[in-house]
Design goal:
Number of strands: 11
Strand content: 15-25%
Largest sheet: 8 strands, mixed
CATH architecture: 3-Layer(aba) Sandwich
CATH class: Alpha Beta
Structural class: alpha/beta
Distance between the termini: 32 Å
């Protein structure tokens, strides 16, 4: 639990000393008895944590978590992982070791990490592959600030189009957490504009499709000194691009034609508001969309592998993809 909790430290705000800490509301609010005992313990641990705001240190920590926690997950869920490249773009592939997986279907993941680090190319995908019984391809896209928008979307599109050479679009599902969810929405917006075939489904987990405005839960769960309360939150990623451009903020454009979508967030997730806004916009556009909100859970709570709510979230994700691809 300590290792997993350290990964989430980077989601907190920066204090005057240049270190990250959780906002007062999350540090002082008691954990409700409506969640598991393990989750209450995780919330208590998270409330005490801080981490450096140095990007290279964050990247090193995230890499350590992907390796250490990923190894635990691989053993637990019975999945094989391989490093590969598709069209010159690095990817990680995950294949369940047992069961009759559909060879004509694939899940495509865009990992989280604030666009600047890899906080999930392993940990977001091993449980999904194991529980769904399907192959997962995780794009290790280029990161900001060295490679600002649209580099990551370019990489995601490159992998998606390459997969179309092997799989029919209706046999591909796309998903991502946090920054990865944003990239998924941006990719779909680009595909819609180009007339490319859409994937069968979207998993939009603790994300936003509007990089130009702050939602209510960002005000509640971020301290005033945090970049998340300013225009600087996505500055390294957006660069000189207009955040109100629908190519950057798909919520501000047309969502018509987007695939069936599953949205997941928690009531203590700073992107809960943005996740629900995207869900409502999808419904208004006539898109079949589901929303699951977990009680008292923090941003991307499924990385806390030792709480029942984590396994439940991964199960919901896997079941959604299996339904969309017609695999019982």
């Amino acid at each position: 639990m300590q290792t997993v909790a350290r990964e989430n430290e980077n989601e907190a705000g920066a204090d005057a000393a240049g270190r990250f800490e959780w906002p007062e509301l999350l540090r002082t609010a008691p954990a409700p008895t409506t969640i598991s005992a393990a989750a209450r313990e995780a919330l208590a641990i998270a409330a005490t944590q801080r981490a450096s705001d140095d990007l290279e240190r964050q990247r090193a920590l995230c890499a350590q978590v992907q390796e250490e926690l990923g190894a635990v997950q691989i053993a637990r869920y019975g999945v094989e992982m391989a490093e590969d490249r598709i069209g010159g773009i690095p990817v990680r592939t995950f294949i369940p070791c047992s069961g009759d997986r559909p060879v004509d279907a694939v899940l495509l993941n865009l990992h989280g990490g604030g666009f600047t680090k890899d906080a999930g190319s392993v940990t977001e995908n091993v449980p999904v592959a194991g529980l769904s019984g399907m192959k997962v391809v995780a794009v290790r896209y280029r990161q900001a600030p060295e490679h600002p928008y649209p580099a990551a979307v370019d990489d995601a599109e490159g992998i998606y189009r390459a997969l179309l050479g092997t799989y029919r679009a209706e046999r591909i599902c796309l998903y991502g957490t946090s920054a990865g969810a944003i990239l998924c929405a941006q990719l779909l917006g680009r595909l819609a504009c180009s007339g490319a075939p859409m994937p069968a489904a979207l998993g939009f987990f603790s994300g936003t499709a509007d990089l130009s405005r702050m939602g209510d839960t960002e005000q509640l769960f971020r301290p005033e000194t945090d970049q998340a309360r300013t225009e600087g939150l996505f500055a390294d990623y957006i660069g000189s691009h207009d955040p109100t451009d629908p190519k950057v903020s798909p919520l501000l454009g047309s969502l018509s034609g987007f695939p069936s979508t599953l949205c997941i967030a928690g009531t203590r997730d700073f992107l809960l508001s943005q996740t629900t806004l995207f869900h409502r916009a999808l419904l208004a556009a006539g898109v079949a969309a589901e929303l699951v909100v977990f009680e008292a859970m923090l941003h991307a709570h499924w990385i806390y592998q030792d709480i029942p709510e984590s396994h439940e979230a991964f199960r919901i994700m896997a079941d959604f993809f299996r339904r969309r691809l017609g695999s019982s």
